[in-house]
């Protein structure tokens, strides 16, 4: 059993000043001086000792090469550390990280052995001292995580330019242009977008070009000189411009709201104009921003919050900008980071033409259905399109089942996959058991269906586009849902309370401490850095923090704008819902960001707020749209802002610089995407925007789904939904019980075990140990919130096909190579992920523009592009296949007299 109590790590209780080597990067002079001292000592090191230091962050030692600055820096810390200091650090590491799933297991076992002394390690005294100090110095002066060490330095130089004119200029220009482009294509199916990984490739040469051509014109303010050209384009400028782009580079979170409200095929509200749009957009965009700052103490500054998803961005920017010594050899590989990334990018750019255009059957590799394309059972079990995807090798497309596999920790991937397999078997049992009429519908669909088996036509029960006509409803009937969709709804309902209770219990002390520090920060203006003493936070102490009241002010600003939008315009949504959204989001946002920071698992809020709005506003679909927009995007925006702040933390960019940059980019993004969206609504292709007849495929899938959800949850109502599927409300209870049970076992189970050991006789305790304590101790590593997240990924074609190959890749790279070839993994792993992702993105954009956009699309019509869609698997994906035929009565489900009527 595990004790998950969080404790502060007393590695360094002293105040770090600006001249401490923990904060300031070694300048050329300091490196030379350091090198003169340490190089004299290099001869005293064995090759194994030199290699050990380098291997911690992926740099192999070359006896003929000049030692790198970080090698010398860590070596200096080792040689100046006493054995007592090293022992104290490692003892604290064992306590602080004992239940940290991201802390390397072999490293923890070695540390536990080291603290027992040289005899336990069977080492000579000199070798033992070196091993002890090396482990302590690298953890204390760098990071305990190889992921972090691979993309950061153990020192910082605060004099490197960050907020320069050219960084703002490039970041804002690219953000504005790409926002317009991504907004224009956001309604298209399939979509076209330029993401942050592509932008990094464009930013680097642009920055280097400006560094060459801009004049050194500037002025001095308060002793600081500001110039157009402060010198070479720096890594920090590249990171700052990247953040300006990543924080706001797409159509804003409310774009589908305006489409649903304004277009005649939906609500057709002609009063929707620019004033309302910009007020609502700014409110929603800044909503999550305000709360994100208050969460910094939970998920930015704690060392255990590693945020795996930011590592590829950091690795790519370093490869593009930071010079690298030639000749370094890592597990036999001497290729530079930049060249390795470019090779990966080029390889995937060329390869992606095969699964995406030339031979699409290897993308949707439902090879088992090729044997018997019309075998319904085979298609439902193994199918890529409409089936469950139970297939040992489901794709050869990185974009289907590879992207993200080299970022998410292996323990997270394997637990989520286990839940996907389990939930798939449950869905299969529900379907073949005709659970709540599911066998009369496609197996894995996200559509709603009428009782005649056709897709539900909500217009048949509406009077004015928004209000339910009860008599028409009585004639047509309620909407029904596929087995996978019903299971998915129940899985979400269980996951929310499970995650809330489990994370709250497991991290209670840390949460309590963070809340107290948050209160003190607002009330007494204490430092955000207090209580966090790891190396990277110590380095960040050099920079002025953003006070908590500034973020609280942003939250207040967004609330005021939201109130104006709800009071001034006829959206039929009361103001109290904003405060309800803030309160509920605040409760769920903490476990959500903790999961993302530790396990790369996000917690979407759309189902939660659709459910609540459907309870609050029965028969009012517009209120559901507004509430969902605020609630869902509160989480997504906060996640974006927080992850960018963590990225800036690793890159040693001033928090105030990031705050200013994020605010400016978010503000500009709102005006750009709304302007583009209004132009499209007014001028696009003779009013065919968001219609299925649109020749350019601008069918607005997001708007369609939002409108359908608004009718089904808002018009039909959650009470009727629960009457139709009465088991669903119980899912909240089941999730709560599981979350509380596992939280309590993992937090206090070890105390019960120790109590039993002391109180029971030896024979009696042995029985309890064998049949209860030892089996339950196996679940110390198990995270039910991470596990059950895998059960949520169904419907709409999403199935095991999108996860199986990712499991293989995760095992190879995130487990086997990471454990056995750590230097190679640290140097190349995230660049492999970034290179393949960029290759897919650019290749996909070019292929889409060349062959899919325009009046006539280009398709290669041959067996390799038609075989995967030739059978019942694809027919089911298009909502036209079911296990059972419609009964002779002409309908399935409830009899007309039993239709739920709780309007």
TrEMBL record:
Keywords: Membrane, Peptide transport, Protein transport, Transmembrane, Transmembrane helix, Transport. GO terms for cellular component: membrane. It comes from Hyaloscypha variabilis (strain UAMH 11265 / GT02V1 / F). NCBIfam families: ISP4_OPT, OPT_sfam. It is a multi-pass membrane protein. The chain crosses the membrane at residues 239-258, 278-299, 340-358, 378-396, 417-437, 486-505, 549-569, 575-595, 607-630, 657-677, 698-715, 727-750, 771-788, 800-818, 830-853. Residues 1-20 are annotated as: Disordered. One of its GO terms (biological process) is protein transport. This is Oligopeptide transporter 2. GO terms for molecular function: oligopeptide transmembrane transporter activity. InterPro entries: Oligpept_transpt, OPT. It is found in: Membrane. Belongs to the oligopeptide OPT transporter family.
């Amino acid at each position: 059993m595990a004790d998950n109590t969080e404790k502060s790590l007393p590695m360094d209780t002293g105040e770090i000043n600006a001249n401490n080597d923990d904060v300031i990067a070694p300048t050329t002079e300091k490196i030379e001086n350091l090198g003169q001292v340490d190089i004299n000592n290099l001869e005293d090191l064995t090759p194994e000792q030199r290699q050990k230091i380098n291997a911690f962050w992926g740099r192999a030692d070359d006896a003929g090469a000049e030692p790198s600055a970080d090698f010398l820096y860590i070596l200096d810390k080792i040689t100046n550390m006493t054995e007592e200091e090293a022992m104290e650090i490692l003892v604290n590491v064992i306590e602080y990280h004992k239940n940290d799933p991201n802390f390397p297991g072999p490293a923890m076992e070695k540390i536990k052995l080291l603290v027992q002394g040289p005899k336990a390690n069977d080492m000579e005294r000199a070798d033992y001292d070196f091993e002890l100090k090396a482990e302590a110095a690298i953890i204390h002066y760098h990071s305990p995580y190889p992921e972090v060490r691979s993309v950061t330095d153990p020192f910082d130089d605060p004099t490197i330019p960050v907020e320069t004119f050219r960084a703002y200029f490039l970041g804002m220009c690219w953000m504005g242009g790409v926002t317009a482009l991504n907004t224009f294509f956001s309604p298209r199916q399939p979509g076209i977008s330029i993401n942050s990984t592509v932008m990094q490739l464009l930013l680097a040469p642009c920055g280097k070009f400006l560094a060459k051509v801009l004049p050194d014109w500037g002025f001095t303010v308060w002793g600081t000189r500001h110039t157009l050209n402060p010198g070479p384009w720096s890594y920090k400028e590249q990171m700052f411009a990247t953040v300006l782009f990543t924080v706001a580079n797409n159509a804003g979170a409310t774009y589908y709201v305006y489409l649903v409200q304004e277009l005649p095929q939906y609500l057709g509200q002609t009063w929707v104009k620019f004033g309302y749009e910009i007020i609502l957009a700014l409110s929603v965009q800044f909503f999550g921003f305000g709360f994100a700052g208050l969460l910094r103490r939970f998920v930015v500054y704690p060392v255990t919050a590693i945020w795996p998803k930011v590592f590829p961005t950091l690795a790519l920017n370093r490869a593009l900008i930071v010079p690298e010594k030639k000749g370094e050899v890592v597990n036999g590989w001497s290729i530079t980071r930049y060249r390795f990334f470019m090779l990966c990018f080029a390889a995937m750019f060329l390869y992606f033409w095969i699964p995406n255009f030339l031979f699409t059957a290897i993308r949707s590799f439902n090879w088992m259905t090729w044997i018997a394309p019309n075998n319904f059972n085979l298609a439902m079990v193994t199918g890529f399109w409409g089936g469950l995807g139970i297939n040992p090798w489901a794709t050869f497309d990185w974009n289907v089942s590879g992207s993200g596999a080299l970022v998410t920790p292996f323990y997270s991937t394997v637990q989520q996959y286990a839940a996907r397999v389990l939930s798939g078997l449950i869905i299969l049992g529900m379907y073949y058991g005709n659970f709540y009429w599911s066998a009369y519908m496609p197996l894995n669909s996200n559509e709603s269906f009428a009782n005649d088996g056709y897709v539900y036509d909500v217009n048949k029960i509406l009077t004015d586009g928004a209000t339910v006509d009860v008599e028409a409803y009585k004639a047509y009937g309620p909407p029904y849902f596929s087995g996978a969709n019903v299971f998915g709804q129940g899985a979400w309902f269980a996951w929310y309370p499970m995650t809330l209770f489990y994370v709250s219990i497991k991290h209670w002390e840390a949460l309590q401490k963070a809340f107290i520090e948050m209160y003190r920060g607002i009330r007494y203006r204490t430092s955000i850095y207090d209580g966090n003493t790891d190396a990277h936070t110590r380095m960040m102490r050099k920079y002025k923090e953003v006070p908590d009241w500034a973020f609280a002010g942003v939250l207040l600003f967004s609330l005021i704008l939201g109130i104006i939008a709800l009071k001034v315009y006829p959206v039929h949504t009361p103001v109290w819902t904003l405060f309800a959204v803030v309160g509920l989001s605040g409760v769920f946002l903490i476990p959500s960001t903790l999961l993302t920071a530790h396990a790369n698992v996000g917690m979407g809020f759309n189902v939660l707020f659709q459910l609540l709005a459907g309870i609050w506003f029965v028969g009012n679909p517009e209120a559901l749209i507004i509430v969902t927009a605020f609630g869902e995007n509160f989480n997504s925006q906060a996640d974006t802002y927080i992850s960018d702040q963590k990225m800036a933390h690793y890159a040693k960019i001033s928090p105030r610089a990031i705050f200013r940059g994020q605010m400016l980019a978010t503000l500009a993004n709102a005006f750009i995407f709304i302007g583009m969206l209004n132009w499209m609504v007014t001028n696009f292709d003779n009013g065919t925007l968001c219609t299925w007849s649109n020749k350019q495929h601008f069918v607005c899938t997001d708007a369609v789904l939002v409108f359908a959800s608004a009718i089904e949850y808002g018009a039909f109502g959650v009470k009727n939904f629960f009457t139709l599927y009465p088991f669903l409300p119980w899912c909240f209870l089941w999730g709560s019980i599981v979350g509380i049970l596992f939280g309590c076992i993992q937090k206090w189970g070890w105390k019960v075990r120790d109590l039993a050991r002391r109180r029971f006789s030896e024979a009696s305790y042995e029985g309890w140990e064998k049949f209860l304590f030892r089996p339950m101790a196996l679940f110390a590593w198990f995270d039910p919130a991470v596990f059950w997240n895998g059960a949520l990924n169904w419907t709409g074609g999403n199935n095991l096909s999108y996860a199986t190959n990712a499991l293989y890749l995760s095992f190879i790279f995130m487990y086997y190579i990471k454990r056995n070839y750590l230097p190679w993994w640290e140097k190349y792993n995230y660049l492999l992920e970034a290179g393949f992702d960029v290759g897919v993105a650019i290749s996909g954009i070019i292929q889409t523009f060349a062959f899919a956009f325009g009046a006539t699309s280009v398709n290669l019509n041959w067996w390799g592009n038609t075989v995967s869609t030739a059978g019942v698997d694809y027919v089911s994906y298009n909502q036209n296949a079911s296990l059972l035929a419609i009964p002779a009565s002409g309908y399935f489900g409830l009899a007309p007299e039993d239709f739920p009527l709780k309007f």
